[in-house]
Amino acid sequence: MPEGHSVHRIARQFDRNFVGRTVTASSPQGRFAEGAHVLTGRAVTAVRAVGKQMFLEFDDDLWLRVHLGMYGAWDFAGEIVVDPTIASANGRMGQTNQRGTALDVPILDAAGENSLTSIGAPRRARVHVRMSEQTTGLADDGDSWPPAVVGQVRLRLLTDVTCADLRGPTACELQTPDEVAATIAKLGPDPLVDDVSEGEELFVAVVRRKPTPVGQLLMDQTVVSGIGNVYRAELLFRARQNPHTPGRNVPDEVLRHLWRDWFYLLAIGVETGQMMTMDDLDPDAYRAAMASRDDRHWVYHRAGLPCRVCGTTIVVEEMAARKLYWCPYCQR
Fold first, then answer.
1. Residues 6 or more apart in contact with residue 284 via CB below 8 angstroms
2. What residues does CATH 1.10.8.50 cover in the chain?
3. pLDDT tens across 275-306, in order?
4. Domain at 187-326: CATH code
5. What is the pLDDT of residues 159-214, one digit of tens each?
6. Which UniProt keyword terms apply here (predicted)?
7. In CATH, what is the architecture of 4-182?
8. Of 8, 14, 170, 317, which has the most beta carbons under 10 Å away?
9. Cα dihedral sign for 280, 281, 287, 291?
10. Residue 50's beta-bridge partner residues?
């Protein structure tokens, strides 16, 4: 499932390449045909990301709400201007899986998590890209413009030079400003959106009232925004916190550590495009981790393998219908 860092990266992609531009919208799949008709001819005026949801504002106070859910992703094609605030894992501007650049050899993620052209659920997108501004070179495969539709595209947004295709979202709907405000009001704090200190106090206060296991609360988007299965497992391990402890029994200092660590890891995810959760790696180990998520995490997806700290076998179980990975010794 795409987690909060992906949605913030998508929002930055739209900010650089769509805000201020008029779009032509279509729904090749047909499931958003009426909404696409309403959007056609309107200019994108703003973009917001909160947790796992993104909101695109258009002329006349019309908003598009997109929740990628488990399988959603945005695929970008055409000229893509790289956000200069996003650096790659090896220090380059832009994202780490750049095709057609004349820069140093990128760190590639074989799982598809970190791609300039496809952000969301990992996939290999059949698109062509012409980089702009911070990048040089062409990766145009000769296809006509706009590119051919591939797969089940719920929504295509097209400017004169850039195309964005949305596939597999849980939600894709038009909203009024009041509806957007109501949607956001239901979400827990996002450390990249809300005041960090105020968000910390709200997070701690809410969790300390709950009898629900903290491992479940971290996945509750009304408690804290953006955390998914990977970050949940890694945050709890980094805090050495048992995931089954009721929220109200978790020490205040541990909850504050979880919030501050989420802010720290989320910023890394937005910058690199990858859920890097291990610290203090030497350059070779860091490069390996950026290339393969198996080398990037402490416990996630490591069931049956020894804990990287104590050697105890990592276990996996279900919590709220999602797989939970943890170390029974380090997190006892």
1. none
2. 187-326
3. 999 998 999 998 888 888 889 999 999 999 99
4. 1.10.8.50
5. 999 999 999 999 999 999 999 999 999 999 999 999 999 999 999 999 999 999 99
6. DNA damage, DNA repair, DNA-binding, Glycosidase, Hydrolase, Lyase, Metal-binding, Multifunctional enzyme, Zinc, Zinc-finger
7. Alpha-Beta Barrel (3.20)
8. 8
9. negative
10. 53
